[in-house]
Each structure stands twice: as C-alpha cells, then as structure tokens.
Model the fold of this input.
Amino acid sequence: MNYIKTAMLLAGMTALFMGIGFMIGGQAGMMIALVIAAAMNLFGYWNSDKMVLRMHNAQEIDESSAPEYYGLVRQLAARADLPMPKVYLIDNPQPNAFATGRNPENAAVAATTGLLHMLSRQEVAGVMAHELAHVKNRDTLIMTITATLAGAISMLGNFAFFFGGNRDNNNPFGFIGVLAAMIVAPMAAMLVQMAISRTREYAADRMGAEICGEPMALASALNKIAGGVAQVRNPDAEHNPATAHMFIINPLSGEKMDNLFSTHPATENRIAALREMASTGGSAAFRSAPSRPKATAPHSGSSPVPDHPRRPKGPWG
Done:
C-alpha cells in the first residue's frame, strides 16, 4: 500500500513541479520542470536518504565506536523483527532523531548527541523504537523523498524570483505568474510535508511503544525533546527546513497547537495517547515476542529494554 502512496506522491509533486515551471516559463518552463522532476524522482529513490544524512552531517557509527547506542538499536531491531539498520550519530546539542531509507533492508536511524546526553537509556530506547516503527511501516521512503522534492520546489520558487521576470521567458501569466509561483511553491511544499508527517507520527508512537514495551518512557522522551528543541537551535535543520517533518519532534520550533499548519501533532496530544496506551496495557504486543537469536542483547530480564546497572552506560551515564 505504501508503494502506491509513494507513486501517488511522486506523481502529485511532479505535477506541482510542472505547474510551477509553467507559471515561470510557459510551456518551455513546464517541459524543463518535467525533465528535472523525472530526474529528481529517479535520483531521490536511490539517493535521497544519503542526501538527508549529509545535510545533517550524520556520521555512521558501529559497535566499537558507540557500543551502548549501537547495541540498543540492534536489540530493538531484533524485537521488531527488522534487519539491522545503519546507525548514525549527529553532533548537535539539540535532542532529536530521525529514520531514513527506501526500505527496511536499506534503512538508517540517526540520533543527535544532545538526545543521548539528555535522555535516560529507557527514553532513548523509546525514541529509537519510534524511528524503527517508521522503518517497519515503510514510512521512510515517502518521508525522505518528500524532503528532497519539497526542498526542490522551494528552490524553484526562489528561481522564479531571480529569473521569472525576464520578458523573453514565454511566461503566459507575466509578473503575476512569477509572483504566484514564489508564493505557491513553498506553501505547497510545506502542506505536502504536513500531510505526510502528522498521521504517521501517531502510528509510529504506538508501534514504537510496543517495540520498546514502555509507552511512558517514550512519552517522557517526547516531553524532554520538546523542551530541548524549544531551547536549543538546530542550524542544520534551519538551513534545510524541508527535512523538518522527518524528525520525531519538529527541530525548527516547539509546536503548541495541533492545527493545520504544524508539521507534527501537538506533543501534548501524543503524550496523552501514550498515557492512555499505558493505562490499557496496549504495549503488551511485543513484550513476549521472541527476538532474533543473532541480535539478542547479552542481558535479559523483566524489563523489555534493561538498563544494565552494573555496566558503564556510555552516553547515558
């Protein structure tokens, strides 16, 4: 089903790209936009995840460089019955995380140093389980390609500002068309991001709570991340706002209202949903689920994600 949604998204954004190209340069502009959109769709399918990771200066880590963080992701991936994703660390004081990749076999999860320093191990587990839920639900392809194309559409609007006023560009709408393109392009890109992100976050919260087995750990993490985002700027996210919908909490601002113009549902509403889930025992689905033997953690106990009190806690010390 998500492949059909992805195809519809690509078709819709390609049509939007062509429409903006027509407003800027007439039929010639529309054809140029079509060629660019087709090339970006193809390139985006194979490379959009790498682009997003590069935008945020994410560095791949392994078990030797970050054993606690890497081992936690490995344990959660086993519980979710997912292939082990690539694991990245972003040197950024703002607490946040995202997932990317075109499918579970080519997925990656990334967390900031701020997230690992601010949250407890159980809370980090809740966040990474949320990101793995996006991978399991196959949201990452749609979210990553949307980030790439939304950025391109916004750039097309900027292009209209610098070159759309040329009288020789065969623009049938003249300056009004250029002005419309400048306004419509970034707004359309933003609306697409909102439509993609908002409903998926609730689903990922629920599945993430099931994977880690602790809805209240994820709820606590969301509360801390929202507070951290409100206090700590993220320059990389501000330079690449089209990727904002990929993060577990909007890295650009602390949204307070669950309205049409927020890229994420209100954090308060997400926490309330997790509290209700905890009170009704809705996280029990993964508690007794068998893990893959090759990926199980060296310690197991009554807690779905044990804290290992006798071992160094790495970034969670």
Observations:
- Residues 254-261, 288-303, 306-314 have pLDDT under 50 and may be disordered.
- Residues 2-55 form the longest helix (54 residues).
- The CA atoms of residues 77 and 84 lie 6 Å apart.
- Residues 2-307 form one domain.
